[in-house]
Amino acid sequence: MSSTETDPPVSSEPDGTDPVSTPLLSAERVGVAFSAGFAPGGTSGTARAVDGVDLHVGRGEIIALVGESGCGKTTLARVLLGLERPTEGRVVFEGDALGYRSRDLKRYRRRVQLVQQDPTGSLNPRRSVYESVAEGLRVHRGTTVDEAERVGEALARAGLRPADRFFARYPHELSGGQRQRVVIAGALVLEPEILVADEPVASLDASVRGEILRLLLELRQELGLSALVATHDLGLAWNIADRVAVMYLGRVVELGSVEEVLSEPAHPYTRALLSVLPDAASEEGPVVLSGEPPDPKRVPGGCRFHPRCPILASGEAERAGVAERCRTEDPLILPGGDERRVACHWAAADAEGRLPAAGP
């Protein structure tokens, strides 16, 4: 669990930043909008894949970014990697705003590395394990005399030992777990400070998932690595994360420590996601949300979750006196930081001030 106090505003100037209190990586009011052709009625549509996200990742911290498919997790991860440029807001690394010139991005990507979801698709079948791991080293630092040593160290840290036995192998000769370890080694060879992992175990067998999650925790302990792990699996978040950010339709709707969010979920959406886990089953059973997530070109007015909200449908929001606000008033964007926060009118009223409401 991170012990950092609530994060102060981050300055983009190198002078005056505090390396202890300044988050390692931040999204500040990040928005990403895509042109989506023509919407009904003949008007041009704009899909807001990410719609104002504040999120900080501290040094040595693991944050789980959870939500349904299509909620914006992958797009936000791409923005944090510098693969996608935000249409609003900015990415800040060590107190400095990310630049998008080629040399700026090249320098940045040595320190912030991606771990992809599908190890089979991300590894070139015609390249040996050695070539796959060494590729990043050659791109970013040129061929060096200690290349074999660096590749061997990365493979060993990723749990492939003795490393030299894997140098000449090809992806088809490895198991799924071994391929994912090669992908992780390819990120580690550059000695990054943070990993951004997009569904890192989704394609793996259940017997292997725990090994990869344990590896990520070991890397944090041994190397001080930070990580942002995008996943739809709250069970994964429980096992690996310090903090959890729950996304819905491009927004973070609940944020807090893993114990706070998963033991006492405040947002109805988080409760619904958690209710389907076997260990979290209640007498009421799983919460079944009605319908599909709305089209990001047509975000509902008021709280964007209200058309599917079981609290509103059951009358609980009406009894709490917030039903009209749910339908008409958009909860403010949650600020980043370590403090527990929820973007929900009903949760704020139900907590009677114990939870900070949305807003600064």
What does this structure look like?
This protein has about 350 residues and is of the alpha/beta class. It has a single domain, classed as Rossmann fold. Helix content is about 35%, strand content about 20%. It is built from 14 helices and 11 strands. The chain has helices at about 75-80, 100-110, 120, 130-140, 145-155, 175-190, 205-225, 235-240, 260-265, 270-275, 310-315, 315-320, 325-330, 345-350, and strands at about 25-40, 45-55, 60-65, 90-95, 95, 110-115, 195-200, 225-230, 245-250, 250-255, 340. The strands form 2 sheets. A 7-stranded mixed β-sheet has the order 6-7-8-3-9-10-11, with helices on both faces. It has a 4-stranded antiparallel β-sheet with strand order 2-1-4-5. The chain is globular, with a radius of gyration of 21 Å. The two termini are about 25 Å apart. Residues about 1-20, about 40-45 and about 355-360 have low confidence and may be disordered.
Q: Which value, in Å, is the CA radius of gyration?
A: 21 Å
Q: What order do the strands of the largest sheet run in, or round the barrel if closed?
A: 6-7-8-3-9-10-11
Count the E strands: 11
Q: Using the coordinates above, name the CATH class.
A: Alpha Beta
Protein name: Peptide ABC transporter ATP-binding protein
Region (Disordered): 1-23
Family: Belongs to the ABC transporter superfamily.
Domain ABC transporter: 27-274
Fold topology:
Blueprint: E1 25-38, E2 44-57, E3 62-66, H1 73-80, E4 88-93, E5 96-97, H2 102-111, E6 112-115, H3 119-122, H4 129-141, H5 147-157, H6 176-188, E7 194-198, H7 206-223, E8 226-231, H8 234-240, E9 243-248, E10 251-257, H9 258-263, H10 268-275, H11 310-314, H12 316-319, H13 323-328, E11 341-342, H14 345-351
Parallel strand pairs: 3-8, 3-9, 6-7, 7-8
Antiparallel strand pairs: 1-2, 1-4, 4-5, 9-10, 10-11
Helix pairs in contact: 4-5, 4-6, 5-6, 6-7
